[in-house]
User: What shape does this take?
Amino acid sequence: MRKESYFHDFDGPGWPVPDEVKKYFSTGGRSWASRGGNDHWGLGVEGLYGTDTLPHRESVNVKLDMIGSPDHGVLLQYDKWDGRTQRRDCYLSKGDLSRLGRFMYNLHDDPYSLGLFIPFESAWKALKDFIESDGELPTSIEWVAARELPPETFPDPALPPQRLPG
Assistant: This one.
């Protein structure tokens, strides 16, 4: 199994231990965009369930992406490619779904639905679960499958932004 980190000071092979990243979730989001002008982080793993010797397309690979906003919390996206069945599953943190039609823009001006943001403390628990389970879908928060969300949840980034108040 090959693990990769792209999370503040942790960039490269392996994952940090949960206590090393807890501070980013306990500061109310102030740490997310303060270093390097980035608010998008992630952890990945390739070769789950003994598939690490298989080609990438045939192995089981997972990515947990995180978008942090001091004003809105954290959006988590869990992507799993199962090369054994050739199936991709994508789950997003389930926040207040009544806010799906409203967006915040990250530091790269990408739109993200406010209905998918959860509090920092909840996101911390999910990240901890992810690390401790070696990449399984965390059970400490509620998730919604991307396929169950309306198309307007994911606006076309090629279109000019239509900013709504956050």
Notes: The beta strands are 2-7, 10-13, 40-46, 60-69, 73-82, 87-93, 103-105, 111-113, 117-118, 143-145. The helical segments are 18-25, 120-132. DSSP finds two helices and ten strands in the chain.
